[in-house]
Amino acid sequence: MTIEITVDESGDAEFAKTVEAIVDEPAAKMGHPFDPLPLQLKAVDADGGLAGGLTAHRVQGWLFVKLLGVAENQRGSGIGKKLLSRAEDYAREKGLVGVYLDTFEFQAPWFYQGLGYTECGRLPAHRGAPQRIWFAKTFDAA
Question: 3-state secondary structure string, 52-115?
Fold first, then answer.
């Protein structure tokens, strides 16, 4: 059998959906469908401008925070903490077991540690690529 592998950097959403289905179908048969559900949180300032935001999805009982960003002129004001707190509240409301996310060593590992997140994995710094650190916070069953 001959297989040709091609590179496509277009971000074709339809292709991504097809690959997701290939992964999801056997997981669903085992009782663990992926079926990620999106979440977006927006922080808007008094003038209606975007001060920050959070994008995430819930899957397999967890909330995965993909991106958390705060506008440069708003950093240090507590917006990031408020966004993450609201995401945690959302996860609890949905009965999820916790939240996980990642950051790079030059970004904010200290921020997540200070909010009770525990490191659960790392990709090493290598050949100029920065270290990527994964964090998780689980919720008490009570």
Answer: EEEEEEEECCEEEEEEEEECHHHCCCCHHHHHHHHHHHHHHHCCCCEEEEEEECCCCHHHHHHC
